[in-house]
Specification:
elongated; mainly alpha; 2 strands; Four Helix Bundle (Hemerythrin (Met), subunit A)
Amino acid sequence: MNSEKLIQSLTESTRQSINQAEKLKQLDKKALTWRINQESWNILECLEHLNLYGDFYLPEIESKIKKSKTKHEDEFKSGLLGNYFAKSMLPKEKLNKMKTFKDKNTLNAKLDIGVIDRFIDQQIKLLDLLNLAGNISLNKVKISISISKLIKLKLGDPFRFYVNHIIRHLRQIDRIQNEMKSF
């Protein structure tokens, strides 16, 4: 896939994520903490889950980008494992449930509206990193993943995984809001 188009697409998705989060700031605490059932996350828990992944991926990506001496390449060729992870995060019509790692499970966490601001700040950081990534190789720069420092993926794949993961949980937030309206 074309490297520039990939970065443009990820940038546009990130801008949409920021816009959606800005709208969430208008909701009251009751709406932000409403849940479909006792085992489901509320809006703040979804965002905090994403913040926990941002806490790992954003510094990891930033460090590798800043150390990189590689040159931009026109084409990004996704790796087999990286492509699998990125595609597995894409939301489907009927969301396929996934088991969350214990350290990223935010169910019943004590959270406040600051979670939204932190999410927005992370998305702004992501925009900066995507901009910087346009000057280096998305193929040669390798990023460790959150489940194992031993597994390294081409930079383009963690970007795709991370943005798809955000899209997935923002769709979950859409479903929460739709369910809330029916109550």
